[in-house]
Write a structure and sequence with these properties.
Length: 188
C-alpha cells in the first residue's frame, strides 16, 4: 500500500535520518565524558536511537517509502559535527543541546501518528507512542543533568529550552495512555 500523504512520507524519511545523527552525536558525547555512570546512560540513549531508526525503517518499508539520500547525507554531517564538537565545547553545552534536540523530537512521533490518523491508519500508534515517550525520557534525563547549572537560566533565555520551557506538551509526571496521547502535539 502506498501512502498518499507527502508530509508524512517526508517526516518519516527525516526521522529515520535524524535518528542516525542523534546516535552519532551520542557516540561522541559518551566518548568525551569522563564519568562512567554518564557514559553508560548516554550509551543506552544511543542504543535507543538505533532502535528507533530500525522501527522507522520498518514502517517505511511497509509502504515502500525509500530512504532519502538527501536527508541521509545532511544528517550524517550534522551527527558527525555534533559528535566531534562534544570534545571541545565542555560539559554543559552537549547536555543542554541534546536536551533541546530531544525535546523537539518528542512531537515528531506524535505528529507522524496524527498524519497516519488522517489516512485512517492506527496500527502504528503503539510503536510511535513508545518512541515519542522514549524521546521525552531522554529530554528529562538531560534536563536533570543541567538543571542545577548556573548557565541554564541564560541558555534557557537564549535558546528557548530548559527547566520552564519545553518544545512539546508531554507532561512526564503524568503521561497519557496511547489512546489519550492524540492530545499531544496537535498539528496547527
Ligand atoms: Fe530517537
Ligand atoms: Fe532521543
Amino acid at each position: 500500500m502506498k501512502l498518499d500523504h507527502p508530509k508524512l512520507i517526508r517526516l518519516l524519511q527525516k526521522a529515520y535520518s535524524a535518528e542516525q545523527a542523534a546516535a552519532f552525536a551520542y557516540i561522541g558525547h559518551a566518548k568525551a565524558s569522563n564519568l562512567v555512570e554518564e557514559k553508560i546512560a548516554i550509551k543506552q540513549i544511543e542504543l535507543d536511537e538505533w532502535e528507533h531508526r530500525r522501527e522507522v525503517l520498518s514502517i517505511m518499508s511497509q509502504y515502500g517509502i525509500p530512504v532519502s539520500s538527501f536527508y541521509e547525507f545532511q544528517f550524517y554531517i550534522i551527527g558527525k559535527v555534533i559528535s566531534a564538537s562534544c570534545f571541545v565545547i565542555g560539559w554543559f553545552m552537549p547536555h543542554f543541546f541534546a536536551g533541546k534536540l530531544e525535546s523537539g523530537n518528542v512531537c515528531e512521533y506524535f505528529v507522524i501518528m496524527h498524519y497516519f490518523h488522517e489516512l485512517g491508519i492506527k496500527e502504528h500508534d503503539q510503536v510511535l507512542y513508545d518512541m515519542g515517550i522514549k524521546e521525552k525520557e531522554h529530554e528529562v534525563y538531560f534536563l536533570e543533568q543541567v538543571k542545577d547549572s548556573r548557565l541554564l537560566p541564560i541558555f534557557e533565555k537564549l535558546f528557548g529550552w530548559g527547566d520552564n520551557k519545553s518544545l512539546n506538551d508531554v507532561d512526564y509526571t503524568n503521561i497519557e495512555t496511547v489512546k489519550e496521547s492524540i492530545k499531544y502535539c496537535k498539528i496547527k
